[in-house]
Amino acid sequence: MQNLRRIIRAGLINFKRSSTVSLAAVLVMTVMLCVFVGLIFLQAVLTYSLDQVKNQVDVTVYFDLDVPESQISNLKKTIDNLSGVATTVYVSAEETLANFKERHKDDYLTLQALEELGENPLGAQINIKANEVSQYEAIANFLEKETVLVKGEASIINKIDYHQNKQVIDRLSALIKNARNLGLLVIGIFVLISAIIVFNTIRLAIYIARDEVKVMRLVGASRRYISGPFIIEGIIYGFLATILTMVIFYPVSFWLGSRMTNFLGLDMYRYYLTNFFEIFLIILVASLVLTIFSSLFAILRYINK
Asked: Which of 102, 206, 245, 284 could bridge to 33 as Cys pair (CB 3.0-4.6 Å)?
């Protein structure tokens, strides 16, 4: 404990003594973390936008006009138990007709044609939403091949609109996959660049104290005792940069939330406040890992000489 206190005190002294380099290191770390938080915000906007698009995609099962509701109810229970199905919504023939009239309320000819028919030409339907976009094909194939879905020799299903929507679903699946891969690639490149910048910044701070390191080696100080103060110094860099980043993004997220919500689709200010501690923890851990390992690798060069 006494050695630990000495190491912490030495780290604080190093931080104060090389104030210019310390300030530069904190600012470099802050810029790095700001970009990192920006990527988090961008990923949140992308995820929200994709979720909105996914919510508009579903598979609708249309039934024949003479199918009893009991059979449709039995089928709905079967669909509910399918793997990958998130929700199912039953829409009766009357509700289907009412929805059709609402969608075509400005189309006088279509409404007039319905009145002349004198009966409801539309059957009941079930709207199915899957957990993942890629699962719609398996659900559609099940509905087309399952023998439980027949009434006598005739199928109770009139049509499944999966094939009409397949192109949109496939494009959405590809978009989600490419967006995730691109996000991982950008984060990987960013982490590599950040590690190089932080490493060089901390190495500069250690270079200034190289004579002190040589003296400590000559008097027989252990590697742990020599490297400890610089690791503490790196931890201080990371902690201060994390605090500064969170302070900077408070007004930034407020501005984005008040002016860009309609454009981005997501209230960034509310997102920032809701996920404040998660964002703080993520960037704190990221900054500490970078600074600790960068300090350790940088000091090893002088310890091993």
From this structure: 245
pLDDT of amino acid 95: 85
Same domain, 107 and 248: no
Task: Name the domain count of the chain.
Answer: 2
Q: What is the dihedral of CA 26, 27, 29, 30, to 10 degrees?
A: 110
Structure tokens at 78: 């079967």
Of 41-55, 99-113, 163-177, least confident by mean pLDDT is 163-177
Confirm whether 15 is domain-assigned: yes
Q: Quote the CA–CA distance of 113 and 122 in Å, as a whole number.
A: 13
- pLDDT confidence of residue 305: 57
> What does the pLDDT read at residue 242?
92
The pTM of this model reads 0.67
Number of neighbouring beta carbons within 10 Å of residue 259: 11
Q: Is residue 132 part of a domain?
A: yes
What CA–CA distance (Å, rounded) separates 294 from 173? 39
Last-in-domain residue among 112, 127, 155:
155
Sheet strands (E) in the chain: 59-63, 85-91, 125-130, 150-151, 154-155, 157-160
Residue 158 half-sphere exposure, CB side, CA atoms within 13 Å?
A: 14
- Amino acid making up residue 183: G
Are both 13 and 122 inside the same structural domain?
no
- Single-letter residue type at 252: V
Give mean pLDDT, residues 28-51: 82
Query: Which one-letter amino acid corresponds to residue 279?
Result: I
User: What mean pLDDT comes out for the span 226-233?
Assistant: 79
Last residue of a domain, one of 155, 185, 218: 155
- Digit-coded pLDDT (tens) for 18-35: 777 778 878 888 888 888
For residues 97 and 34, membership in a common domain is answered with: no
Is residue 165 one of the residues assigned to a domain? no
Which residues touch 292 (CB under 8 Å, ≥6 apart)? Answer: 231, 234, 235, 238
For 192, counting Cβ atoms within 10 Å of its Cβ (0-12 exposed, 13-18 middle, 19+ buried), the class is: exposed
